[in-house]
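Batch manifest line 285
LIGAND: zinc ion
JOB: complex structure
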Amino acid sequence: MSRVICLTDSELCALLPKASARQAADYELRRRHGWTALDSAQSLYRDRNDAEKAVLKAFDRTLGHFVNGGATNTAWIARLLSDLRHLAAEDADRGKPDGLSPRFRAWLDQRQQAHDQPYTRVVTDAEDGCLLLRAVQGLSGFRAAEVWNSLTPPAAINAATTTSPAPAARTRELLANGYVRLYATGLPDRHCRHLAAQIADQAARSEPLSAELGSHLTRCDTCSHALSELQLIHCWEPEDLRDSMLIWSHVSGHGSTGVRHQSSRPPAPVVTATGRLDNESRDVR
Ligand SMILES: [Zn+2]
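JOB STATUS: finished
ARTIFACT:
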């Protein structure tokens, strides 16, 4: 066990397809991310027991993705949080929407395009449309880990600090560049495409707006939204970034997890490799 503690998430994920190393790697990933998973699940479900059951299912489902090679270029924590969102939506589609937290249910209902559209489709569409999530996925494993460690710090980081370090300036720059590429590629309006480079520069330098860009932003919600998300990346505002990346928290409210102070955190759970959620354990920190 002591050997795997030193490994990164991606190194642990690389061990998962190997039967001889799987149990130790799986346990370590559950130990690191148990608290974040339970916190997120409690933002999705009304009842604590349902949240705990979902966490166990989500860890198993995420493990399956990595064991079977279906999660390439994805960080463990990103896949885990996505699996939690989908599990909650699946429960609602199976006729149990009342088990969801009121806020998550309202979020789903607000985005449902048609009355009979499955909630799982709503979640998929939201993830596919989230440029921040896609931009992080486009980073190299090392750079992506910096971002995820800042926004959802694993147990080892939580133990030593009350706040998590922001990614390096170069990582933030690469993330912003990736975001702009995705943004500009998907723009149907020619004028918006023409201004994409200006928006990128504006977010990076915070200089006075040009007359052309200022005028455009007053009437284009798409470009205004892109500028504000790019500014979040450059200034590194974790609370707002989590909100924009569908990373929800029970402790700090639905939309954002906020800065995690040790004093405000509940007992940390350990989701064991045998499928047990042990809330009395403390070694996760
Ligand atoms: Zn525009």
